[in-house]
Design brief:
By secondary structure, the chain is an alpha/beta fold. It contains 8 helices and 5 strands; from the N terminus they run E-H-E-H-H-E-H-H-E-H-H-E-H. Helix 1 packs across helix 8, helix 3 packs across helix 5 and helix 4 packs antiparallel against helix 5. The chain starts with a strand and ends in a 6-residue tail after the last helix.
């Protein structure tokens, strides 16, 4: 089972992901928690480039191919081996982030981005994708507060520094992309309490696990 967590900055997806990991471990599942960018050794180097606030001159096409390189390595080195062992893989972001951020956010062609991602991941798409949805103003407020508290405002704050219109496009992009792929996506109302969000997420995860396919 391959489950991805998506959403704009400050949506609470990472908090929910950690709680899901613990719940599944308590239920006896083997679980791998990973993230993009940065889920592999090479990816950690690429992450430092992609999220650094000082790299605000990266053109959209260069940004795209850095993400694709990170993703190809992540799938080949981390995700596929874990799935082959029967582990539940939980990833904080995946290919849908690129379709939404570089497509709807940056103005590149979303369908072309889907094709390029399909090549990068060798056709491996998640069994379930959870999109944590909330107004961009609230997400940015949460993200800025978090970054100031943990000191990532410079080292990993490049997307938080984008203007509000960009984040509004990202939100609409997620909702549009989810509507175009309803069999795989579940949209979660992230404006509620963490406990309410977690309950909804676990219902979706358990339903997906009950119908889990066998991964090659």
């Amino acid at each position: 089972m391959f489950i991805t967590f998506e959403g704009m900055e400050g949506s609470g997806k990472s908090t929910a992901l950690n709680r899901v990991q613990q719940a599944l471990l308590n239920e006896g599942h083997g679980v791998l928690l990973t993230r993009e960018p940065g889920g592999s050794r090479l990816g950690r180097t690429l992450r430092s480039i992609l999220l650094d606030l000082s790299n605000d001159d990266i053109v959209p096409e260069a940004e795209l191919f850095l993400y694709l390189a990170d993703r190809a390595q992540h799938v080949g080195q981390v995700i596929r081996p874990a799935l082959a062992e029967g582990v539940v893989v939980l990833s904080d972001r995946y290919a849908d982030s690129t379709v939404v951020y570089q497509g709807y956010g940056r103005g590149l062609d979303p369908e072309r981005l889907r094709e390029l991602n399909d090549m990068a991941v060798g056709g491996l798409w998640p069994d379930l994708t959870l999109v944590f949805d909330l107004p961009p103003e609230e997400g940015l407020r949460r993200a800025m507060t978090r970054n100031l508290q943990d000191g990532t405002s410079v080292s990993e704050g490049r997307f938080e520094a984008e203007h509000l219109a960009f984040h509004a496009r990202v939100r609409e992009g997620y909702l549009t992309w989810a509507a175009l792929n309803p069999a795989r996506f579940r949209v979660v109302d992230a404006t509620r309490t963490p406990d309410q969000v977690f309950e909804d997420v676990m219902r979706a995860v358990r339903a997906a696990l009950a119908a889990a396919p066998a991964h090659p």
